[in-house]
Amino acid sequence: METQKHSLLKFTLLILLLIAFNTAYSQQRGNQPHPAAPEKPGKPYGRITKLNEKIPDKLMPPNWRNSSAEQEQLIRDIKLARKSGDRTETQTLQSKLNKLNGVITKRGEQSGYIVKAGNQIHQSDNIDLTQIHYDNNVKGIATVTEQTGENKGRIWTIATGNYFNKTDYSQTNFYYSDDNGINWIFYAYAYNSYEINAPDAIDAEIIEDNTGTKYLYVVYGAVTVSTGKYICNLITVTISGTVGGSVQRLEWPGFDYFNTDVRYYKPRICTDNAFWTGGAYLYIAACQDSIDGMQTIFSEKVAFIDNPYTPTPGVNYKPEVFWYYSFDNGDFQGRCDIAWFDDPGNGGGSVILAESGAYFTTAIYLYETADVNYLGLPVYEGYLDPDGLTKSSAHIASNGLYQNLMIVNVSEYDPYDHDIQYFTTTDAGDNWTDGFVSYTYDDDNEADVTGLRNNPGNYYSVHADFNLTFDNVFYSVARENVWSDFVVPMNHIDASVEVSPKAGIKTGGSDSCFVIWTEWNSNANMWGSSGCEGILSLSRALAMGVYIEGYYDPGSYSMTRTDTITVSFRENFFPYTLVDSKKLPLYNNGYFLLNSNLIDAFTDYYIVVNHRNTIETWSAAPVNFGGGSSFYFEFISSDTKAYGNNEKYLGTDLSSNDYYGLYSGDVNQDGVIDAGDLSQVENDASNSLTGYESSDVTGDDYVDAADLSIVENNALTGVYVITP
Fold first, then answer.
1. CATH fold of 4-27+543-664, please?
2. Please, what CATH class does the domain formed by 104-530 belong to?
3. Cys-Cys crosslink for 473: which of 26, 444, 517, 639, Cβ 3.0 to 4.6 Å?
């Protein structure tokens, strides 16, 4: 039976080979242009759109009724308590209002766990392209950026999917970047058993306290393995201090885990943290379908969290549906999205919900509530439909402390020609203007939009185009609510149509362009593109395996500690000029991943590894990436992987797998293990030196006889650097 290590080697190699075949597969798959369409009229732009207020006959609002005097007074009192910063009083009053509204508060069933990770992914170029996630089965992606305090500007990306080809297990990975998307750290992951992730059903927000406490909240859809029921989950991850959090199921009153006639899907989340830095709320909406006899009822379910400053929050649920409509039995899924914005006319903030995709209409419907009464009575604001074209996949964003709102949606001009339309308002929805972000003959789809917090009129949108040689990802920027014609392609390989790209925000640079997207493969991997202008170049990911002699533990067939290692690429001819070099974390299992945009396709390079107290080691022969984006190389399984067989034999496991590692003992890094290294270790040992020292070749933070033994043995055998 193979060891876990060698199984991982084969699994990693298989994944990278699949990625390498991506380009050829993409060419076979390329979408064909649609038939010639009649000439389209000029691009409609800047029209004033009237908000239609009549409720369509098929729309069935809930039991409309006026709030009581007691409810109205509580709403006013809550707003005052929030403004005073009294969180205790706010929660006390909110609980009273929740009770009058029939709200149910509970923590959902614990359905998963948070695990700390720790792996760096690095790459840099003009429009910076980084393969952030490479487990090859992404179902949904999201991104959000820290706006205040320590780590302001840190970008978070989330990838949810069913990794390792498991059909009864879901995992959500969390990554962050502190340099606008160039380098990425694998921070943590959450996992659930007995469910698989629903496609393209994830959203995220960050809660930032004025004390420095920060939490990342994620809502996502999943399907249970045993019953096939569509459900929604909530993940809370601590992103300040110690990694922690929780995974719980969102369970509205009447929730039945085994009733597949009721589906909860495509959850969305927003926050008022732009204003309430010390007492923010979180607002959640999810679509719900249910079959009642021969009728299918579509509705929204809503919930909110009035104390999100905890890894295990309680969730407040509205028992009744937000609103609904019914139609003949069928399989139909609509789309809703929510945003919070400052609304002085409403005595504070408001939450607006945009609904699109109703089968009987082409419109986008809008509903609004006071933020503190989100689970109370929604106000029907009307609908947007100036042209009679079918509108779907509507997403709505705000700028926080302003009355600005932006909706971006897919508009169906004909079955082969979809455009990206927008609606925007600067007065909290009293007046709207519409136009097009993208107005071409192409099949534009999967639009997303995000607003720059407290920067009125600044928005970023991304969408996929299906009519090019391969599916492309386009990015657009709006300044002062006006979308420019400058639409930038942000991907260099085929983008997966199953997972819609997401627009993000980066700060600290000359622009704010940041996009996450997925490549097309049999499944999908997540990439990030950072930068508005420049030349797209293909980053190449190198997965590597290296053991260090002094750190090796023969009992576990792994290393006793983590450390850093430097990997270099050199030309394959004298004088072997340095092309690129990265210093990266090396983990106990010997593996790490690096990305480089300086390596050319179909070009041979020597791979060289250096560590603070090992002999510099070269690959036995030059390595060629070919035309793919990924490559795998390891020094572990045989000394024939090293130039001149210059590695130490570490042992053989019960399955006859051999293990090799870099020679330890070149403490002074002069290229040879000799008396100079031995003298330094002897001196440090006699002084009982402790800590992270180059003379500590065993990595136990003590310089002692064990270190002397390794250095002495290698000095006696005359170990030195062997190069071409």
1. Immunoglobulin-like (2.60.40)
2. mainly beta
3. 517
Residue tagged 């576990």 (tokens): 556
pLDDT score of 136 = 62
Integer Cα distance of 181 and 511 in angstroms: 13
The whole-angstrom separation of Cα 236 and Cα 111 is 12
Residue type, 697: V
Rg (CA), the chain: 28
Locate the domains of the chain by residue range. Answer: 4-27+543-664, 104-530
* Burial (CB count <10 Å: 0-12, 13-18, 19+), residue 169: middle
Buried b or exposed e, range 490-516, using 16+ CB within 10 angstroms? bbbbbbbbebbbbbbbbbeeeebbbbb
pLDDT confidence bin for 511, thresholds 50/70/90: low
Of 261, 256, 135, 233, give the one whose Cα is nearest residue 519: 135
Q: Which of 221, 266, 207, 213 is nearest to 242 (CA)?
A: 213
With the CA atoms of 372, 378, 381 and 385 taken in that order, what torsion angle do they form, in degrees rounded to the nearest 10? 120
Three-state SS for 27-80 is HHHCCCCCCCCCCCCCCCCCEEECCECCCCCCEECCCCCCCCHHHHHHHHHHHH
Inter-axis angle of helices 675-686 and 705-716, nearest 10:
170
- Rounded CA separation 426/322 (Å): 26
pLDDT of residue 30: 31
Cα pseudo-dihedral 351, 357, 358, 362, rounded to 10: 100
How many whole angstroms separate alpha carbon 385 and alpha carbon 211? 45
Nearest to 214 by CA among 340, 88, 309: 309
Cβ neighbours around 134 below 10 Å, total = 22
Whole-number Å distance between alpha carbons of 306 and 273: 12
* Predicted model pTM: 0.70
Residues 6+ apart with CB under 8 A from 39: none
Determine the 3-state secondary structure of 7 from DSSP: helix
Distance CA(392)–CA(614), nearest Å, equals 59
CA 681 vs. chain centroid, Å, equals: 46
CB atoms within 10 A of CB 640: 11
Question: Strand 324-328 and strand 295-305: pairing?
Answer: antiparallel
Q: Which residues contact 382 (CB under 8 A, 6 or more apart)?
A: 51, 52, 53, 54, 365, 366
Q: Do domains 4-27+543-664 and 104-530 have the same CATH topology?
A: no
429-466 residue pLDDT tens: 888 988 888 887 778 888 899 998 888 888 999 998 87
Predicted confidence (pLDDT) at residue 64 exceeds the cutoff of 80: no
Q: Maximum CA pair distance of the chain?
A: 91
Phi, psi of 139 (to 5 degrees): -105, -25
